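Query structure, 384 tokens:
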């Protein structure tokens, strides 16, 4: 059945729209994960382990969904986590995501592997902006990206710490997905079956990775899978000491993305991080690892109040956000929930996805008897 944007009401609908509108290898890059993809599916299933307990007869005419995170007040308790290669998904790419974040006044992030440059994003958008730093072996590249983030007034830096090597993304191996796309008989067939996407890719702005192209050929001029890129190009000697060294050159809030243990959460405090993203990279790295939601309460109990905690991964519904906030997360973030909508319909898709998420959160807060995020707490949660 042909799917239209106006008939999309949840993440599953946006996923179907994306699958319909973009070539198979690109859809499976967004949709896929590592090994048997058990962690990927468990990230969402983990939210089903507990139930929300509402309170009634509380005035809920006015609902405040705002939170303060990484030095900024945002109007939604969930933001758009930085992800790579977005102009492969839709020709508007990071520009579309920024437009949606601006409209809803929430954080959005761009990656070291973004398809739009730091300078343009910094000048174009006034909403809170995060840069996701992949620490490369090439020190001059790291320094260049960091300096540009300072120059163009990015609000926070998120250092990804769970990509020492690339995960075993078997879907990408089967489809032959690379950056930039490599033309094979199989990929050309999938491109031919997505004529609108193919025309946009061929005639619009040429695909590039602006942060990388003046330093590296891999991923820009030389086609490479993302897994191979992480393994070959990123710094496998990344350490807590190197995080401290980066912090010396970054005065604004610093977030460590990919923290999953209490021990590492405590170390993040010691090196001066402002926040941690409890995240397993959407199940794309270590299959068989715990879900962020499963780890959330343990980490909150150990470090809450000493560092901000962002629950990142598996979020598909407003109730997922409310459960994470009830357990003590300061905010939530996600990737696929907006990437499907970007791939399916560009800026209009991302705005609709955020609008629906906002509606769910507001409606569910009213049903919970909560007028502000601060009303949510562990008393709202019961485990099955």
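Result returned for the query:
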């Amino acid at each position: 059945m042909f799917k239209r944007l106006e008939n999309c009401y949840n993440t599953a609908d946006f996923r179907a729209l994306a699958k319909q509108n973009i070539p198979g290898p690109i859809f499976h890059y967004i949709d896929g994960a590592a090994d048997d993809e058990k962690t990927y599916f468990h990230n969402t299933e983990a939210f089903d382990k507990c139930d929300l307990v509402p309170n009634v007869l509380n005035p809920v005419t006015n609902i405040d969904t705002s939170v303060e995170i990484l030095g900024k007040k945002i109007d939604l308790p969930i933001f758009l986590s930085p992800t790579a290669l977005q102009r492969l998904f839709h020709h508007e790419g990071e520009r579309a995501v920024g437009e949606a974040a601006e409209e809803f006044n929430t954080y959005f992030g761009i990656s070291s592997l973004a398809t739009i440059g730091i300078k343009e994003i910094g000048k174009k958008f006034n909403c809170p902006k995060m840069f996701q730093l992949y620490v490369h072996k090439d020190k001059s590249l790291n320094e260049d990206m960091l300096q540009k983030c300072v120059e163009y007034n990015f609000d926070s830096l998120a250092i990804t710490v769970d990509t020492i090597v690339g995960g075993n993304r078997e879907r990408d191996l089967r489809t032959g997905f690379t950056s930039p796309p490599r033309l094979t008989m199989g990929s050309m067939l999938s491109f031919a079956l997505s004529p609108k996407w193919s025309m946009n890719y061929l005639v619009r702005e040429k695909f590039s990775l602006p942060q990388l192209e003046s330093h590296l050929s891999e991923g820009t001029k030389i086609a490479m899978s993302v897994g191979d890129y992480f393994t070959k190009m990123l710094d496998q000697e990344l350490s807590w000491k190197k995080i401290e060294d980066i912090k010396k050159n970054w005065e604004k809030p610093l977030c460590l993305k990919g923290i999953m243990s209490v021990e590492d959460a405590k170390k993040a405090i010691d090196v001066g991080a402002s926040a941690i993203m409890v995240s397993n990279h959407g199940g794309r790295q270590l299959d068989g690892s715990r879900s962020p939601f499963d780890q959330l309460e343990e980490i909150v109990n150990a470090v809450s109040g000493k560092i901000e905690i962002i629950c990142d991964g598996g979020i598909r519904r407003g109730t997922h956000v409310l459960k994470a906030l009830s357990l003590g997360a300061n905010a939530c973030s996600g990737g696929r929930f907006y990437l499907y909508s970007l791939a399916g319909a560009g800026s209009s898709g991302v705005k609709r996805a955020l609008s629906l998420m906002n509606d769910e959160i507001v409606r569910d807060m009213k049903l919970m008897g909560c007028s502000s995020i601060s009303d949510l707490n562990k008393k709202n949660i019961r485990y099955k």
